């Protein structure tokens, strides 16, 4: 239960760091359990429907490829190519949405001194790890059962790229949560910046097929690097010439720092 300890967000006098950390983890897990239960509802239908959007994206993209006569730019089938970009991107977008709405979902719990928005952010990010794992299982199973495809070159590299997409989503949403404390317009700015990311993050194309002058511009986007790493791990016949995990990590660290600094100087 969340209502117990009355713990503040930093260690109090006489409390060990390990005890403080244990309490923080308990709070995060309790909020995550609450989130999962609310999504499941009575029959789990709402939770199942949350996976329909990525499946619809895959179907719509496949139809667009067919209508435009576009084939996979990599030696693989079209569905597998689409999955290699869309699933990491969906991980990013889902966690941005989940973390971005924590201020409203946790508002009623802030009467407890132990609970902070940071606990809600961490719990939302944790739940999205579970959701992403389920989505991966559903999509890969469907690809194998319906099309007989099960391509996965390097699972660890694929998971690393997907994890970077998740971390970019967490840090991006956390930074804009902090900015929105000072001006609500930052919520709109954050959403505006997200819209072109669907088309500029190597979801429908590979970085390798771009001309150098265009790649020089798009490679500033850290999400492109994360998606390319995931694709590099999934596809047997692809090796990205631009993907950099360290570049994505720099952006993650910078955005988390922005969010943390704004949290320390917040004026609620």
Give an overview in words.
The chain is 69% helix and 0% strand. The protein is globular. The chain starts with 16 loop residues before the first helix and ends with a helix.
Estimate nothing, just give the exact number of structural domains.
Answer: 1
Amount of beta strand: under 5%
Whole-angstrom Rg: 20 Å
SS-derived structural category: mainly alpha
Which outline best applies? globular
Distance between the termini: 26 Å
SSE pattern: HHHHHHHHHHHH
Count of separate DSSP helical elements:
12
- Got a strand count? 0
Q: How would you concisely characterize the structure shown here?
A:
The protein is mainly alpha-helical and 268 residues long. 69% of the residues lie in helices and 0% in strands. It has one domain.
Secondary structure: elements and pairs:
Blueprint: H1 17-40, H2 45-49, H3 52-68, H4 78-100, H5 102-105, H6 117-147, H7 155-180, H8 185-194, H9 197-200, H10 212-218, H11 222-234, H12 245-264
Helix pairs in contact: 1-6, 3-4, 4-6, 4-7, 4-11, 7-8, 7-11, 7-12, 11-12
Question: Key terms for this structure?
Answer:
mainly alpha; 268 residues; single chain; disordered N terminus
């Amino acid at each position: 239960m969340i209502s117990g300890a009355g713990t503040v967000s930093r260690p109090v006098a006489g409390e060990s760091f390990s005890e403080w950390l244990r309490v923080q983890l308990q709070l995060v897990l309790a909020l995550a359990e609450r989130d999962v239960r609310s999504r499941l509802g009575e029959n789990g239908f709402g939770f199942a429907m949350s996976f329909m959007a990525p499946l619809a994206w895959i179907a719509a993209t496949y139809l667009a490829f067919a209508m435009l006569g576009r084939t996979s730019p990599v030696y693989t089938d079209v569905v597998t190519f689409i999955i290699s970009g869309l699933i990491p991107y969906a991980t990013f977008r889902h966690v941005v949405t989940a973390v971005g709405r924590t201020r409203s979902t946790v508002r009623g719990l802030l009467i407890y001194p132990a609970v902070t928005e940071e606990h809600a952010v961490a719990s939302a990010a944790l739940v999205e790890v579970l959701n992403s794992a389920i989505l991966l299982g559903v999509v890969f199973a469907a690809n194998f059962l319906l099309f007989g495809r099960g391509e996965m070159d390097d699972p660890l590299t694929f998971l690393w790229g997907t994890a970077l997409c998740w971390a970019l989503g967490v840090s991006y949403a956390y930074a804009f949560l902090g900015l929105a404390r000072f001006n609500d317009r930052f919520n709109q700015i954050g959403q505006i910046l997200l819209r072109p990311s669907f088309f500029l993050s190597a979801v429908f194309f590979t970085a390798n097929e771009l001309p150098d002058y265009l790649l020089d511009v798009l490679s500033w986007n850290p999400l492109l690097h994360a998606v390319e790493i995931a694709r590099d791990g999934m596809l047997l016949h692809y090796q990205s010439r631009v993907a950099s995990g360290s570049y994505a990590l720099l952006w993650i660290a910078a955005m988390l720092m922005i969010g943390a600094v704004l949290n320390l100087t917040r004026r609620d």
